[in-house]
DNA sequence: TATTGACTTTGAGCTAACTCCAAGTGATAA
DNA sequence: TTATCACTTGGAGTTAGCTCAAAGTCAATA
């Protein structure tokens, strides 16, 4: 697959794909004889994984570390597990924050709704 | 309340508090005769609100817009409601991404666990 | 043959959200 | 009185994660 195809498939710009490769998120992508990237199955899987993690806000540095461990084979399983557990912990925390904020927004929006409908003429701004 | 007290209370650095004020997230904080900030109830409420929103990743630009509308009184209720609805939509999307990623991490961690326990000697790296 | 268009590289530039620094002020402690 | 300390300001610096620009290569088309 060319970079344009992969770019379309995963909705990441070619620049971003090259950047990910440069910083070590992807093991060097195979090339044609003229040096043009020809993404294989493995590269695509990694890109999909990275995209998923990035969408959740996992830092690139962490992903580089993970990919490096992955490249070293089975001896790094324990370390990889610990790394993923740490990220999960962070995401659970983030999830909690987001849930709290959504609840707060729900409340505020409901109040504004009521004001709009004239059900609350008494409203004092409280945030 | 002094900036140091507020800083401690909300776990935000004094620099961050001054920054928030400078960019317009807080209406000018009251001062003592020597120009030292003396945070009042309203300032604290705003700080708490901003902190909650920032913890969920809501952009400062958006919050500035919201605070500006808030300052203009009841005529902006509809606009404020729309703004909050948009942010809620973004957070729901984010929540979805995070949930997906947590599920994926749970799966990976489980697999690594099994490998560690010798239950899976056959494992092929798949991400 | 000439040009188009997708690719390549290197390296600079950008944005958000802080974070830090230098220089100054004013109240309190020794 | 002198020194300390928490505060003040303006403005520069930092970090993550891209994003863009310039200059070049190569295969395919007019």
Element pattern of chain A in H and E: HHHHH
CATH architecture of the largest domain in chain A: Orthogonal Bundle
Oligomer: homodimer
Largest sheet of chain A: none
Rough shape of chain A?
elongated
> Which structural class do you get from the secondary structure elements of chain A?
mainly alpha
The first-level CATH class of the largest domain in chain A is given as Mainly Alpha
Mean pLDDT of chain A: 96
Number of helices of chain A: 5
The helical percent of chain A reads 55-70%
How many domains of chain A? The number is 2
Our Rg estimate of chain A from Cα atoms comes to: 22 Å
Strand content of chain A: under 5%
User: Which topology of the largest domain in chain A does CATH recognise?
Assistant: Multidrug-efflux Transporter Regulator, Chain: A, Domain 2
Low-confidence stretches of chain A: none
- Measured distance between first and last alpha carbons of chain A: 51 Å
Number of E-state strands of chain A = 0
């Amino acid at each position: 697959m060319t970079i344009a195809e992969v770019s379309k498939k995963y909705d990441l710009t070619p620049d971003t794909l090259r950047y990910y490769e440069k910083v070590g998120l992807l093991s060097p992508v195979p090339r044609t004889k003229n040096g043009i990237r020809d993404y294989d199955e493995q590269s695509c899987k990694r890109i999909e994984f990275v995209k998923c993690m990035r969408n959740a806000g996992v830092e690139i540095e962490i992903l580089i570390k993970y990919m490096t461990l992955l490249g070293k084979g089975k001896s790094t399983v324990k370390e990889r597990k610990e790394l993923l557990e740490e990220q999960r912990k962070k995401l659970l925390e983030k999830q909690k924050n987001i849930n709290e904020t959504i609840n707060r927004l729900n409340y505020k929006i409901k109040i504004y709704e009521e004001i709009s409908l004239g059900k609350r003429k008494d409203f004092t701004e409280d945030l």
